[in-house]
Amino acid sequence: MNLLLGIAVDNDVYAEYKEKRYAVNYSGKTDMVPLRTIELVANSKDYGAMPEYQKACRRVVESVRTEIQNLYRKREGKREIMKHDTFDKYLDDIKKIFDDSIAKKETAIKKVELAREQYRSSGMEGSASYVARRKAEILEEEDSFKDKLREIHDQAEEDLKEVQKSFQEHLDSFFMPSGTAVNEEDKRLLDSLELSESECERLALKYPGNVTMLRLLVDYMGKYKGLEKSSIRYQIRHVLNISKKKYEDTIKQYAGIVASTLSESERFIDAGKKKIDSVDAGSRAVFDEIFIKP
């Protein structure tokens, strides 16, 4: 056995992963870096001058660590580990990306506004070389400000993509039928008795977080004439059919609005905050009303 990212792994897994390269996304850049280098950077105390790079390496380490853990869980017939236990926490992630980006943006604005004020208050008196130097300084500060805004926006877009990717993986896993999700006692009940419509409804209410059991129940009801066209069976089938897409559309729309809002002029920050608060509340309301959830 070998130690990889703090996990004891077999020789085959170690050999497969130790030389793998992963995309490290930071400050609008993407570098393909060997995993062993990424681990060194993530654990180093010498990257204070490049916090975004180290933060990106730490994200990769966490992602790969989960990937390896899930590899072994699959071998054991267990469900995969996900970043969060509930879907609404991915909305928290998106909101945090927005809030953090706005905080960085406001800091950059204060810095450039201070430089502008100092430039205005210093006047244009003095030698020609002094005036030229002051103009060059303020122009450099303005360029630096624009670069910082681009960097903030690019990093936010990368972070939003990571959240959407993690959410999609969780969503796909959650909606995939699994033998480990079968309640054997209720399965025996379905195999041996003909239930009434109200009994099927009560059984469905037991499983808002179990797609496998809901699908088994729909299949069961389809075998009996009195249940095949019942409103309960229709409702369960409808919820199974629309829920996943509703989740996907909601988080995609939310992430898109955050990205576009962050690209707006600094003059509209307060309006942007109000807009995102509204979108966040609306997205949570959509998630709350969906019956099928972890």
Strand-helix topology:
Layout: E1 2-4, E2 7-9, H1 11-18, E3 21-26, E4 29-34, H2 35-43, H3 51-75, H4 88-122, H5 128-175, H6 184-192, H7 197-205, H8 211-221, H9 225-228, H10 231-262, H11 269-289
Helix pairs in contact: 2-3, 4-5, 4-10, 4-11, 5-10, 8-10, 10-11
Keywords:
11 helices, mainly alpha, two-stranded antiparallel sheet, single chain, 294 residues, 2 domains
State the oligomer: single chain
Shape: elongated
* Count of individual beta strands: 4
Task: Bin the helical content.
Answer: over 70%
Cα Rg: 26 Å
Broad structural category: mainly alpha
Strand content: 5-15%
Model regions low in confidence, pLDDT < 50 over at least 5 residues: none
Instruction: Please describe the biggest sheet, giving its number of strands, its sense, and whether it closes into a barrel.
Output: 2 strands, antiparallel
Number of domains: 2
Average pLDDT, to the nearest integer? 87
Number of helices: 11
User: Roughly how many Å apart are the termini?
Assistant: 35 Å
Element order, helices and strands? EEHEEHHHHHHHHHH
Strand order of the largest sheet: 1-2
Structure description:
This protein folds into two domains: 74 residues, no CATH class; 210 residues, no CATH class. The protein is built from eleven helices and four strands; from the N terminus they run ββαββαααααααααα. The strands form two sheets. The chain has a two-stranded antiparallel ribbon. A two-stranded antiparallel sheet has the order 3-4. β1 and β2 form a beta hairpin. It is elongated and about 100 Å long.
